[in-house]
From TrEMBL:
Claim: Hydrolase is one of the keywords in the record: yes
Keyword Thylakoid: no
Signal peptide residue numbers: none
GO MF assignments: aminopeptidase activity
Gene3D superfamilies: Creatinase/methionine aminopeptidase superfamily
SUPFAM superfamilies registered for this protein in UniProt: Creatinase/aminopeptidase (SSF55920)
Residue ranges of every copy of the Peptidase M24 domain listed in the record: 18-185
PANTHER family associated with the record: AMINOPEPTIDASE, CYTOPLASMIC PEPTIDASE PEPQ-RELATED
Protein name in UniProt: Aminopeptidase P family protein
Amino acid sequence: MTHHDREAVGPAYDPLRMQHARRQSWAALQGIRERMRPGISEDEARAEAGQVFAALGMDRLWHPVIIRIGPNTTKTYREPSTSGVRLGENDIYFIDLGLVFDGHEGDVGDTFTVGEAPRQQACAQAARDLFQDVAGVWRNRGLNGPSLYNYAHERAETMGWRFNHAIKGHRVSDFPHAVHKGGDLGDFEHKPAEGLWILEIQISHPTEPFGAFYEDLLTHAAS
């Protein structure tokens, strides 16, 4: 089903199970969102996430649970959070999950606000809108990875947001995808195949200390 070595999958790979992992991952993200409330810390939110995963029958994590609050929403995957940050009454946070269900990898992320935070809410929606825009370009124009991320950068600037170039998307498949050395979507010089690549979008306000994140599996059906 694949055209390039970087899109190799294991013998257990099943597109239907990939979609199941995606659905369950989104259900887990929603379950964590329902537990987020003013005053909670990132560590406390991660601890409570374990109860959500157990209820959904998760096999395991394939990357650590990432929950960023307030100014930490501008940080990338590998950057440590500033400690001591708690969710304010009018604030922003994002959730980034890498979960395995039935031997297949889900990877989802989204950004939310609490209280009255209109600028932060606009940022969260912009990340979703930009994801849908870029995913639509992938479906309709067949751009390769670098072209998709160049397009994302241009669109983010047009929309008035700062684009995070350190986030470039990546492979998923039957666990573990890392054995196939698929690398970053932003460096993949061919049209990405359906159901194998995660498109990641991270933006931030040009002057204020908050940002937003959204990621999902590239599929021909719009989410």
